[in-house]
Amino acid sequence: MDRRSFLTCSAAGVAAATFAPTLAFAKAATDKRFLFVIQRGAADGLMTLMPTGDPGLAALRPQLAVEGGTKLDGMFTLHPALKQTAALYAAKQAMFVHAVASPYRDRSHFDGQNVLETGGSLPYRLRDGWMNRLVSTMPDDPKAIAFSPTVPPALRGAAQVASYAPSNLPDASQDLLIRVGDLYQADKQLGPLWNQALSARAQAGDLASARGAAAAGALAAKMMAGPNGARIGMVETDGWDTHSGQKGRLNAQLTGMDAMLAAFREGLGADWSNTLVLVATEFGRTARENGTGGTDHGTGSVAWLLGGAVSGGKVVADWPGLSQAALYEDRDLKPTTALDSLIATALAQQFGQDPARLAATLFPETGAKPLPKLLVA
């Protein structure tokens, strides 16, 4: 094992991080914050935000119907697991955009996630991600970080970003930390990297090895709060691919998401008022339930916008309906809003940028057009 390999292993063990050279954040030029939460596996938007006012829902989902929930308007009811999200909606700090989709129209998770994260028109056409391109539009380094063992495709690109995640390895002793620090003290490349690893570990504090959805939200808040916190972040969530046993599994997934978002809000404190959170998935699920108590890969789903910066308390939807004739390819919720346009519009309003120019920068292949709606106050 050479010295650089050893440093990599040691950093993973003691600091649980993958570091770009500038993880030790300085104050960014903006107080605005943006967190992107990706739901990997194609989350079921029809059960997350149920169109209970549409007579087609009960016929399509006789076994998956959920009792209760928070009725948001005459059409939509929020899943009962989302109690704290419902409270944010009541406080006008949450809104939902239904029947949305990226340009992707096939049914591969990997390809769909690639389109969602790179912002291209087809899988693997672009090598960098729209979040990295967002960083490049900002005049001063906004400090971007992924709460993940590696940098996800949405944040990859020319702009410098960092990643941080709790480690599965046991904690190293303080003695080992000191000796490794001494070893690299004179190394101009590895010495600063090691010090940045220790700095990040100290910043994470007792959350450096914490597990669970709420811990993930608290960790993200800790790294993004305060004048020196990151302004752009990304959290990956898995487990949304509910081909069977969906009722219980989706309830658990949404309970976790609810807890994570609540922990993030609480941990940010006063910075929540300047924050925009976007939750989105690579595609939705079939409108009809299948024979194993689940649903299969679909098209349209729902996007969430949350935060003190959101002009919330409403559902935005050009609702296509759930009649057989209204379904996309006779099986999916038909998308009526482009997810690319939604993202570009929300970010332009959040960071005070020209919406058309930002849409062209973030999504250069898709022809994304800004939405004529106030998403961020």
From TrEMBL:
It comes from the Bacteria. Keywords: Signal. Residues 1-26 form the signal peptide. This is DUF1501 domain-containing protein. The lineage of its organism: Bacteria, Pseudomonadati, Pseudomonadota, Alphaproteobacteria, Sphingomonadales.
